[in-house]
Amino acid sequence: MVLILNLYLMNSINLSEWNDLLRTYQRHLTSEKKYEFGSSALFRNGSFAIIKIWMVNDGLPCDVLSLFDMVLTYRDVYGNAASKVLRFNDPMGWRPINVTLRGGAELMNPVRLDHLTGVLDPGEEMLVTVRLPYDMAPDSPVYVIMTSPGGWREVLVL
């Protein structure tokens, strides 16, 4: 898992919340569980992309999604290499929008994205919106690195 401490975040929450956050990260970092997933790009325009993600091995409890990071690497409008870390459910980050099983309703462990309950089971697909950086060159390839608890990562080119 990529863990980047944001000093602004550290100053904006109280000590109890901070300790809860650290315990959550420690629990997931010490876990032997590795979530393996696949991904493919479905759509991209100048401001966002839609990505399809599916589980390969075990089910993914939805409350773990908040621990996933996405790192975009791209060329900016000046031709320089740039990277940006995207956070879960941040307006400038990434967020899940739908979960289906072969295009229909899922039956096992139904996911409620508004409450982060349920499990993304093998065979189910989750659509995700990704906010693209404003300084990205329009013709730039975008490398998306998705990291998960347990250390699994997936690299996708948009």
Task: Write structural notes for this entry.
With 158 residues, the protein is mostly beta strands. It has one domain. It is 13% helix and 37% strand. It has 2 helices and 10 strands. It has a 4-stranded antiparallel sheet, with no helix packed on it. The protein has a 4-stranded antiparallel sheet with strand order 5-4-9-10, with no helix packed on it. Strand 9 (143-147) and strand 10 form a beta hairpin.
Please tell me how large the radius of gyration is. Answer: 16 Å
The total strand number stands at 10
Structural class: mainly beta
Order of strands, main sheet, comes to 1-2-8-6
Order of helices and strands: HHEEEEEEEEEE
Mean pLDDT: 76
Q: Give a short account of the largest sheet.
A: 4 strands, antiparallel
Determine the number of helices (DSSP H or I, runs of at least 4 residues): 2
